Amino acid sequence: MVVERKFIQDLIIKRSISKYMEDALTRAGFSRVEIQKTPVITRITPYVMNPGRVIGRGGETIDSLTDTMKKKFKLDNPQISVAEVANSKLEPRLVAKSIANALERGINPRRLIHTAIKEIMQNGALGAEIVAKGKLASKGARAKKMKVRLGYLPKSGNSSKLVDMAQIASYPKYGAIGVTVRIVQPGTKFPDREVKKVALPKNIAASTMRSQRPRTDAPRSYAPAAAPQAAAPAPVTTVQPAQAAHPKPQGEPQDSQEKKPEA
Fold first, then answer.
1. Which CATH code fits 88-212?
2. 54-89 pLDDT, tens per residue?
3. pLDDT tens, 113-126?
4. Spatial separation of the C-alpha atoms in residues 133 and 143, rounded to whole Å
5. Domain 2-84: which topology?
6. Pairing mode of beta strands 144-151, 127-134
Protein backbone atom coordinates (compact mmCIF):
# COMPACT_ATOMS: atom_id res chain seq x y z
CA MET A 1 0.00 0.00 0.00
CA VAL A 2 2.87 2.39 0.72
CA VAL A 3 4.35 1.86 -2.74
CA GLU A 4 0.97 2.34 -4.43
CA ARG A 5 0.39 5.57 -2.57
CA LYS A 6 3.82 6.76 -3.65
CA PHE A 7 3.01 6.13 -7.34
CA ILE A 8 -0.36 7.84 -7.01
CA GLN A 9 1.24 10.85 -5.30
CA ASP A 10 3.84 11.15 -8.08
CA LEU A 11 1.13 11.12 -10.74
CA ILE A 12 -0.81 13.81 -8.89
CA ILE A 13 2.31 16.00 -8.68
CA LYS A 14 3.03 15.54 -12.39
CA ARG A 15 -0.54 16.50 -13.26
CA SER A 16 -0.37 19.57 -11.03
CA ILE A 17 2.94 20.67 -12.61
CA SER A 18 1.52 20.22 -16.11
CA LYS A 19 -1.56 22.30 -15.21
CA TYR A 20 0.59 25.04 -13.67
CA MET A 21 2.89 25.12 -16.72
CA GLU A 22 -0.08 25.36 -19.04
CA ASP A 23 -1.43 28.42 -17.22
CA ALA A 24 1.94 30.12 -16.73
CA LEU A 25 3.33 29.57 -20.24
CA THR A 26 0.25 30.23 -22.35
CA ARG A 27 1.78 33.20 -24.15
CA ALA A 28 4.87 31.16 -24.99
CA GLY A 29 2.75 28.58 -26.84
CA PHE A 30 2.84 25.76 -24.29
CA SER A 31 2.31 22.30 -25.80
CA ARG A 32 3.30 19.65 -23.23
CA VAL A 33 5.75 18.92 -20.42
CA GLU A 34 7.96 15.91 -19.69
CA ILE A 35 9.01 15.12 -16.10
CA GLN A 36 11.84 12.72 -15.28
CA LYS A 37 12.43 12.04 -11.61
CA THR A 38 15.75 10.59 -10.50
CA PRO A 39 17.25 10.14 -7.01
CA VAL A 40 19.44 13.22 -7.58
CA ILE A 41 17.39 15.73 -9.62
CA THR A 42 13.95 16.23 -11.13
CA ARG A 43 14.26 17.23 -14.78
CA ILE A 44 11.30 19.23 -16.15
CA THR A 45 11.17 19.86 -19.92
CA PRO A 46 8.35 22.10 -21.21
CA TYR A 47 7.81 22.16 -24.99
CA VAL A 48 6.81 25.63 -26.20
CA MET A 49 6.63 27.60 -29.44
CA ASN A 50 8.70 30.54 -28.16
CA PRO A 51 11.47 29.45 -25.75
CA GLY A 52 12.66 33.04 -25.30
CA ARG A 53 9.54 33.92 -23.32
CA VAL A 54 10.20 31.05 -20.89
CA ILE A 55 13.86 31.93 -20.35
CA GLY A 56 13.28 35.66 -19.98
CA ARG A 57 15.82 38.46 -19.91
CA GLY A 58 18.93 37.18 -18.21
CA GLY A 59 17.12 33.98 -17.17
CA GLU A 60 14.74 35.75 -14.78
CA THR A 61 11.59 33.86 -15.84
CA ILE A 62 13.14 30.40 -15.72
CA ASP A 63 14.69 31.14 -12.30
CA SER A 64 11.27 32.17 -11.03
CA LEU A 65 9.75 28.93 -12.33
CA THR A 66 12.47 26.91 -10.61
CA ASP A 67 11.78 28.60 -7.27
CA THR A 68 8.06 27.93 -7.70
CA MET A 69 8.74 24.24 -8.31
CA LYS A 70 10.71 24.09 -5.05
CA LYS A 71 8.23 25.95 -2.86
CA LYS A 72 4.84 25.02 -4.28
CA PHE A 73 5.43 21.39 -5.29
CA LYS A 74 8.26 20.65 -2.81
CA LEU A 75 10.65 19.22 -5.39
CA ASP A 76 14.29 18.61 -4.48
CA ASN A 77 16.77 20.14 -6.91
CA PRO A 78 14.45 20.74 -9.91
CA GLN A 79 16.07 21.59 -13.26
CA ILE A 80 14.03 23.16 -16.07
CA SER A 81 15.27 22.79 -19.65
CA VAL A 82 13.14 24.45 -22.33
CA ALA A 83 12.60 22.72 -25.69
CA GLU A 84 11.14 24.21 -28.86
CA VAL A 85 8.22 22.55 -30.65
CA ALA A 86 9.39 21.02 -33.93
CA ASN A 87 6.03 21.15 -35.77
CA SER A 88 2.99 22.90 -34.35
CA LYS A 89 0.64 20.98 -36.70
CA LEU A 90 1.51 17.71 -34.93
CA GLU A 91 0.96 18.99 -31.37
CA PRO A 92 -2.59 18.12 -30.20
CA ARG A 93 -2.80 20.90 -27.61
CA LEU A 94 -1.73 23.61 -30.07
CA VAL A 95 -4.12 22.32 -32.75
CA ALA A 96 -7.02 22.15 -30.27
CA LYS A 97 -6.25 25.63 -28.98
CA SER A 98 -6.20 27.12 -32.49
CA ILE A 99 -9.55 25.44 -33.27
CA ALA A 100 -11.05 26.74 -30.01
CA ASN A 101 -9.90 30.29 -30.74
CA ALA A 102 -11.32 30.11 -34.27
CA LEU A 103 -14.67 28.85 -32.98
CA GLU A 104 -14.85 31.81 -30.62
CA ARG A 105 -14.41 34.11 -33.63
CA GLY A 106 -17.42 32.50 -35.33
CA ILE A 107 -15.73 30.51 -38.11
CA ASN A 108 -17.67 27.64 -39.71
CA PRO A 109 -16.92 24.50 -37.60
CA ARG A 110 -17.09 21.99 -40.47
CA ARG A 111 -14.69 23.88 -42.71
CA LEU A 112 -12.42 24.57 -39.75
CA ILE A 113 -12.18 20.90 -38.66
CA HIS A 114 -11.67 19.63 -42.21
CA THR A 115 -8.86 22.11 -42.80
CA ALA A 116 -7.18 21.27 -39.48
CA ILE A 117 -7.19 17.49 -40.01
CA LYS A 118 -5.97 17.99 -43.59
CA GLU A 119 -2.95 19.93 -42.35
CA ILE A 120 -2.25 17.25 -39.71
CA MET A 121 -2.23 14.42 -42.25
CA GLN A 122 -0.18 16.42 -44.75
CA ASN A 123 2.53 16.82 -42.11
CA GLY A 124 3.02 13.04 -41.94
CA ALA A 125 0.68 11.88 -39.16
CA LEU A 126 -0.38 8.22 -39.34
CA GLY A 127 -3.80 8.93 -37.88
CA ALA A 128 -5.82 11.81 -36.49
CA GLU A 129 -9.21 12.53 -34.98
CA ILE A 130 -10.89 15.83 -34.15
CA VAL A 131 -14.10 15.88 -32.11
CA ALA A 132 -16.11 19.03 -31.34
CA LYS A 133 -19.14 18.78 -29.01
CA GLY A 134 -21.41 21.60 -27.88
CA LYS A 135 -23.32 24.57 -29.27
CA LEU A 136 -21.95 24.40 -32.81
CA ALA A 137 -25.05 25.99 -34.35
CA SER A 138 -26.69 29.38 -33.83
CA LYS A 139 -28.55 30.58 -30.77
CA GLY A 140 -31.39 28.36 -29.59
CA ALA A 141 -30.20 25.24 -31.47
CA ARG A 142 -29.43 21.92 -29.82
CA ALA A 143 -25.93 20.81 -28.93
CA LYS A 144 -24.28 18.75 -31.65
CA LYS A 145 -21.27 16.50 -32.06
CA MET A 146 -18.95 16.68 -35.05
CA LYS A 147 -16.22 14.07 -35.50
CA VAL A 148 -13.67 13.62 -38.30
CA ARG A 149 -11.25 10.71 -38.25
CA LEU A 150 -8.53 9.61 -40.68
CA GLY A 151 -5.86 6.91 -40.63
CA TYR A 152 -5.20 4.32 -37.94
CA LEU A 153 -6.14 5.42 -34.44
CA PRO A 154 -6.37 2.76 -31.68
CA LYS A 155 -8.52 3.59 -28.66
CA SER A 156 -8.03 0.52 -26.47
CA GLY A 157 -5.21 -1.70 -25.32
CA ASN A 158 -1.54 -0.83 -24.95
CA SER A 159 -1.49 0.65 -28.46
CA SER A 160 -3.74 3.51 -27.30
CA LYS A 161 -0.88 4.80 -25.12
CA LEU A 162 1.01 5.70 -28.31
CA VAL A 163 -1.65 8.25 -29.28
CA ASP A 164 -1.19 11.90 -28.22
CA MET A 165 -4.38 13.56 -27.01
CA ALA A 166 -5.43 17.01 -25.80
CA GLN A 167 -8.73 18.59 -24.77
CA ILE A 168 -9.51 22.32 -24.86
CA ALA A 169 -12.77 24.13 -24.06
CA SER A 170 -14.00 26.98 -26.26
CA TYR A 171 -16.51 29.59 -25.04
CA PRO A 172 -18.29 31.35 -27.92
CA LYS A 173 -21.30 33.55 -27.20
CA TYR A 174 -23.88 30.78 -27.82
CA GLY A 175 -22.43 28.18 -25.42
CA ALA A 176 -19.41 26.06 -24.54
CA ILE A 177 -17.74 23.74 -27.07
CA GLY A 178 -15.31 20.97 -26.16
CA VAL A 179 -12.53 20.22 -28.66
CA THR A 180 -10.62 16.90 -28.50
CA VAL A 181 -7.66 16.20 -30.78
CA ARG A 182 -5.88 12.83 -31.11
CA ILE A 183 -2.77 12.41 -33.27
CA VAL A 184 -0.54 9.42 -34.07
CA GLN A 185 2.92 10.86 -34.63
CA PRO A 186 4.94 9.98 -37.76
CA GLY A 187 7.18 6.94 -37.35
CA THR A 188 5.11 5.34 -34.56
CA LYS A 189 5.57 1.56 -34.47
CA PHE A 190 2.57 -0.55 -33.43
CA PRO A 191 3.09 -4.15 -32.28
CA ASP A 192 0.14 -5.59 -34.19
CA ARG A 193 0.27 -3.90 -37.60
CA GLU A 194 2.18 -1.73 -40.03
CA VAL A 195 0.46 1.56 -40.73
CA LYS A 196 0.62 3.11 -44.18
CA LYS A 197 -0.19 6.62 -45.28
CA VAL A 198 -3.88 7.22 -45.99
CA ALA A 199 -5.15 9.19 -48.97
CA LEU A 200 -7.32 12.17 -48.09
CA PRO A 201 -11.01 12.06 -49.08
CA LYS A 202 -12.12 14.48 -51.76
CA ASN A 203 -14.24 16.64 -49.46
CA ILE A 204 -11.35 17.09 -47.00
CA ALA A 205 -8.66 17.52 -49.66
CA ALA A 206 -10.68 20.34 -51.23
CA SER A 207 -11.40 22.14 -47.95
CA THR A 208 -9.52 25.38 -47.36
CA MET A 209 -10.13 28.38 -45.17
CA ARG A 210 -11.17 31.57 -46.89
CA SER A 211 -8.06 33.37 -45.69
CA GLN A 212 -5.88 30.72 -47.44
CA ARG A 213 -7.51 30.97 -50.86
CA PRO A 214 -5.43 32.86 -53.44
CA ARG A 215 -6.82 36.21 -54.50
CA THR A 216 -7.45 36.72 -58.18
CA ASP A 217 -7.48 40.51 -58.14
CA ALA A 218 -4.35 42.54 -57.61
CA PRO A 219 -3.80 43.75 -54.04
CA ARG A 220 -4.71 47.33 -53.41
CA SER A 221 -1.80 49.64 -52.75
CA TYR A 222 -2.03 51.79 -49.63
CA ALA A 223 1.12 53.81 -50.30
CA PRO A 224 0.57 57.55 -49.80
CA ALA A 225 0.24 59.50 -53.03
CA ALA A 226 3.12 61.75 -53.94
CA ALA A 227 2.53 65.46 -53.42
CA PRO A 228 1.93 67.32 -56.72
CA GLN A 229 4.93 69.36 -57.78
CA ALA A 230 4.46 73.07 -58.38
CA ALA A 231 4.30 73.92 -62.05
CA ALA A 232 7.16 76.04 -63.37
CA PRO A 233 6.11 79.60 -64.22
CA ALA A 234 5.54 80.16 -67.91
CA PRO A 235 8.05 82.47 -69.59
CA VAL A 236 6.79 86.01 -70.10
CA THR A 237 7.01 87.21 -73.71
CA THR A 238 6.79 90.91 -74.47
CA VAL A 239 5.15 91.70 -77.79
CA GLN A 240 6.33 94.90 -79.51
CA PRO A 241 3.75 96.71 -81.70
CA ALA A 242 4.71 96.47 -85.33
CA GLN A 243 5.59 99.81 -87.01
CA ALA A 244 3.98 100.80 -90.30
CA ALA A 245 6.07 100.35 -93.40
CA HIS A 246 5.01 103.76 -94.86
CA PRO A 247 4.10 106.25 -92.14
CA LYS A 248 1.57 108.86 -93.14
CA PRO A 249 2.69 112.48 -93.20
CA GLN A 250 1.36 114.80 -90.63
CA GLY A 251 -1.58 116.96 -91.61
CA GLU A 252 -3.35 114.28 -93.65
CA PRO A 253 -6.42 112.53 -92.29
CA GLN A 254 -5.66 109.28 -90.66
CA ASP A 255 -8.57 107.57 -92.34
CA SER A 256 -8.90 107.79 -96.08
CA GLN A 257 -12.63 107.27 -95.84
CA GLU A 258 -13.10 110.20 -93.44
CA LYS A 259 -15.49 112.80 -95.01
CA LYS A 260 -14.27 116.31 -95.66
CA PRO A 261 -16.27 119.08 -94.06
CA GLU A 262 -18.63 120.83 -96.52
CA ALA A 263 -17.91 124.45 -97.48
1. 3.30.1140.32
2. 888 888 889 999 998 888 888 888 899 999 998 999
3. 999 999 999 999 99
4. 7
5. GMP Synthetase; Chain A, domain 3 (3.30.300)
6. antiparallel
